Amino acid sequence: MAANNKKENGKSANVFLIAGIALVVFVAYSMFLGYRLYTQLTGTYNNIQRSLVDVSTIKDNLLMVNRDVLLIIADPNSNAVDNVHEITNCFNDIDRCMKDYEQVEDREEKEFRRYNQAKTFINAYHKKILSFQEMYMSGAENSESLRLDADRAKLLYTQELQPLQVTALEMFDAAKDIGQSNSESQIAMVYRTLDIFMGLMLVALVGGEAAIIIIARMAKAQSAKLDKREKELEAFDSKLKVSKRKMNEMAVMNILTGMKNRYALDEDISGRLETDNMCVTLLDIDNFRQINDIYGYDFGDEFLGMVSDKLKEEFSEHAELYNIQGNQFCLVFKDSVAGSQAMRLSEQAIQVMNNVYTISNIGLQLSATGSFYNYHARECANLSALLVKMISGIRQGKARGGNVLITVM
């Protein structure tokens, strides 16, 4: 009997040993699998963020190129060297972002096909831009030739440049949407796998607790670890959602000034251009480049922040404010503000920007030039056309010495 008990105890001990080893293996594997799933989730999120930043930067630069081309066409007698230089820098930045975009692995074939189409259109767009520059600069010394080349440039822009630029933007949007959808599907699959994994773990732990007390105790300890892991995953999921929300906000927000950017302006009013009347003012700080040249970019950024805060403080009640580019601000007045009142508020905004702002014990005062547009429905097809008119008004005001408000017709 004693021998049998010893044998049974030995069998029980073996069972405990085997169960313990199996549980240890199971726990080790679960930790490894959890780490792999966590790594996959983190990598997918980083790829989404990286691709969104690259596509956003490419679109920014394409819009800047389009703006510079329109500025050259709008005023062919101006010195276009700065615009040409900025176009070159934009395409260099686009090439960098495309190379960075291509380094991300495991993209869906459909997404990569859309991207290659977009890349083809960008390359074609770049070649056309170079032809445009050569045509424009070749007649730069002859006013009559410049006028004729400007007419050709307008035709080239309408028939060739703009379709290529618009198509490239659409292809990049399509590639971004496909990639984001694919990545979200991967994240959803990871979450489903985690749910299944957590369910299986719970079954295994409950079964172990019913079998033996030792395994139950070990299972409870492991369950506590899993609960902690689950909370960590929930915390990570919460952070992921917050980061995604912040990323969406960053896409339409100027981080420096805390104002909405040009993309937000496009989203807010593009749908209204066909149907609504509105009052819009564009403001540009005169001679702002001198601040960066004399005091440095950090000083200039702080100056822009102070001006932005003052504009928000004074005019947020009457208009939606945007920092569409560097030292350019846009006010879209609310429907409750009449045209005459909007013009008075625009003049007051120029006066606010003319105030003395003190930075590091240095008092600085710069004037500002504005263009005011009492817009009526269907006068402009898109935001770019609207801004071309208003920038033309800014140029007229600066030609008069600045510190004025020009009414755009």
TrEMBL record:
Q: Name one GO molecular function term.
A: cyclic-guanylate-specific phosphodiesterase activity
Indicate whether Transmembrane appears among the record's keywords: yes
Identify the InterPro entries for this entry: Cyclic-di-GMP_PDE-like, GGDEF_dom, Nucleotide_cyclase, Rev_trsase/Diguanyl_cyclase
**Coiled-coil positions:** none
Q: Where are the transmembrane segments?
A: 12-32, 196-219
| Start and end residues of each GGDEF domain | 276-409
Q: Which PROSITE patterns match?
A: GGDEF (PS50887)
SMART domains, per database record: GGDEF
Q: Could you tell me which Pfam families the record lists for this protein?
A: GGDEF
Name the keywords, alphabetized. Answer: Membrane, Transmembrane, Transmembrane helix
Q: Does the keyword GTP-binding apply?
A: no
Q: Which NCBIfam families match?
A: GGDEF
What protein am I looking at? Diguanylate cyclase (GGDEF) domain protein
